[in-house]
């Protein structure tokens, strides 16, 4: 029942917001709702014994399709729930600086997204997963369409169709798999015992993987991403980059690895090289970007390439590193975008060429920016380092050159991040007008996020213990299949 | 009823088939090649009836009343269809002052 | 207690950073100096309490990264090697903190400065005290970050920011090697704890070890500013002078040496890597020395001298003379910190002037600085009985043991060092004043550290007094317990040969000083601008055009790729590809819609034709 509550808290709050449309209280209500969800997830975490899998809600829905309403979680799902629950209060909170029209609608849409995301991470049934997976796109679609920036129609539609195409492939692959089961069922537990012939797995891999490859996105399926991230309203970008792309990662773990292990083995090198190439490619592009938000978009693309490569290393270090980094990346993207918003609020632009020398006026904001950046370039004792270190080791055990390319991304990362910081903050003060330095709200937003990255960088055990069990379990079934 | 069936059965099935085939072909040719919409509707009826004939014949030959039940359904549907068709025809006459089917060429994208 | 040593500077950093607004005047500096001083006192206590024979003391705090077969503890290790480094870091660090109170007195962001300096000390202590490679890496990156922040401390000058960025990125390139080396090492041994790795080292084959050690050496190259990654260090002089003294002379840049001495077990098993280290060090030492001769910025001269001296240390490591290398690290920390602080004192006296062409005749007006600077110069020149003599001589003796040619080259480098150091000394303090400022001696808070360091520079040689002077090389024996490579150092030279070599170098050094005196002290020969020099001097003055080369080879192409990936890769290929998919769909629709002619009879015909086709298909069972 707790799990149902997790779905319903944001959903019902969102409905209430839409029905009553309070203007001033909307954000406060939404914030309370997300904090309540956070409380529920923390409670789940507190009572969770590492290594167990919990299935608590089960209803038949459309039996002949194998569609059942099954909710549950294991360590990996819990990590994703935690990530969603931790990040969303901040996303809602970021609205304080945005002053969008119709705040109740914006917050309602965000809460709908959260509800569906919880659904994605809780679903233990393939079709249920798919339903939530596609549903989560709907509120984001409206958010982008009505509150986006320049060219929002074209870009939103493009994003929507592109993602939908991936989803369609997933549906097809899923349906194919379900048809192979007897009696018909699309429960994860059943799908994971499916043993498909090798050559089927080789083509089926792409049907299942494509949706997640587009969602992440990895090279060469990334073309929708920079435009969408740049155009989307700040909170929309936070949702997209902070949480939604983790659905791709999660989907790969829940669908691709257990169902088509031979396909994974067959395509592994291709996917890793594509991801790493994309990571370097995006990192190099980020260097010369003029718009800070677009730069963050490319940097996210670069990080995600590494995440995907680490995951496909398909060993303990690679997968757990990737999951750990997923958490780090969520925090990173949200805090980085908040900085973009804070700068834009003060200077009226996100063009790096127009900034410069802000540190003199905004020393506290500069310090916060720097601390966020430290996480972005994966310095030890930040969260990112733990994740990247594990991924490097995972990739090395597969192939030294892959590790080489992966480590090169951190050089590239340092190059563009430091350059961006310099262009925005350092140099002679060119601003005539007065600006307010980071105030109470900015500190309330950024300090907890920075604290999370530092604490979990210093003591990663809670998260690592969470993922260790399921990863080992998955790997042992995988190795048994090869 | 039995006698009626036996009467029908006196004529071999092939004859019904051939007759139906010709009736259907005439109807089809009319639908395809005539331009007057009224004629086309008549030809449609002709095709219906050829099929009805065949269904009745089969029904009698196989001693299965299902075929004749179908005929009633078809007649019902045909009546409805003619009603709609003629209504369209009237509208067409009013609007374009013609019953030439080639006048109805707006039915595209 | 072990934990407290790095913790104190960290606490200092956090406290100063948190209360930086309310800390008035010198209080931030006092606090910073106090924490480092206490860390030094603790280090001394640890030093006294540590018995080399019992092996390392390990303080295990908790399991840091523990998953699957990987267990990287958060643990500190205290043994002879880390104690040596700890004493240098905290000892020299305390003096430099003290000095900074005076030097940074007028700066508006003095609290930030001390917070960063404390943070740096923390990172450096983690680097030398870590009980496994990843702990070392924490410190390794931490010092890099602090170095970045401190080089760009005066952030309003774009050139300084560029220098900071350059330093960080070049270090990152080295770090790539480090990380890969660790990943490789881990994949083979399953652990990264020092003692466990070294136990398993002998079971690895030579080729693998060569690969691993080369990768680790790449890390050392970046951090210790060797060819080809040395150009960041001279640029790093953009930072405040105490930073140059602490980070870019005494401590951080020697991290590479520490890493290799620490891993001496691995390097001993990979002779090829040792050769690579030897030649890298040699070439760097000579190249940097040649550049040093033609620099006119007082700090740049010292920077190139640092690069060159680091080259000497690497030569020692390449020769397997680990204790000699570390000995030179120690004496270098003393005299180079002294020289930088002295230079800082000169700059302070002249209100920020750094060009030696606008100095001269300062020995009268800033006496303490002059005397201490002179002692430092004598020490770096390797004149008996100053500390530099003993440490450099140890390296030269080992080099002679390997090959006389190597010895000759290194001696040549040492003579060039003497030449440019005395050029610097004479141009700064002798002759007549060529500037327009009013030089004044620095306050006691700055001169006291100078004097302490001067004493250390003079007597530092006693730390490892060689046998020919009746010493017992105490430092070497002390280190034997910590770095296995040290015990295998042999010197096959007879006492006569050693005396001859020392005599030769002393005579030559004196000769060079004499030449320099004639050239710079009496009439102050000033170099013209680099453009007017003849070929070789111009090459040296232009730093062998290495910066220009890198700009052409790496920076420009990187920027070019960045723009082109964006303008061609994205805008012309990837995005059109995606839009193309949409456009094809649209086009297909446009073509297909023509089928809908609107002609009713055509539709009917098509319908019938379709039915017939399907009928035929069913009949023939297609």
Keywords:
heterotrimer; B: 109 residues; mainly alpha; Helix Hairpins; C: 622 residues; two-stranded antiparallel sheet; 25 helices; 3% strand
Write the layout of secondary structure elements.
The complex is a heterotrimer of chains A (482), B (109) and C (622).
Chain A: H1 2-20, H2 26-46, E1 54-62, E2 67-73, H3 75-93, H4 103-122, H5 126-135, H6 137-147, H7 152-179, H8 188-191, H9 198-215, H10 224-231, H11 234-259, H12 261-287, H13 292-312, H14 316-347, H15 358-361, H16 363-376, H17 383-398, H18 400-425, H19 440-458, H20 461-481
Antiparallel strand pairs in A: 1-2
Chain B: H1 2-10, H2 13-33, H3 37-62, H4 66-96
Helix pairs in contact in B: 2-3, 3-4
Chain C: H1 4-18, H2 27-49, E1 57-67, E2 70-78, H3 80-103, H4 110-129, H5 133-151, H6 158-189, H7 194-201, H8 206-223, H9 232-235, H10 241-250, H11 255-262, H12 264-268, H13 271-293, H14 298-318, H15 322-349, H16 367-381, H17 387-402, H18 404-429, H19 444-459, H20 474-480, H21 484-487, H22 495-521, H23 535-541, H24 546-592, H25 600-619
Antiparallel strand pairs in C: 1-2
Helix pairs in contact in C: 1-2, 1-4, 2-3, 2-4, 3-4, 3-10, 3-15, 3-19, 4-5, 5-6, 5-10, 6-8, 8-11, 8-13, 10-15, 13-14, 13-18, 14-15, 14-17, 14-18, 15-16, 15-17, 15-19, 16-18, 16-19, 17-18, 18-22
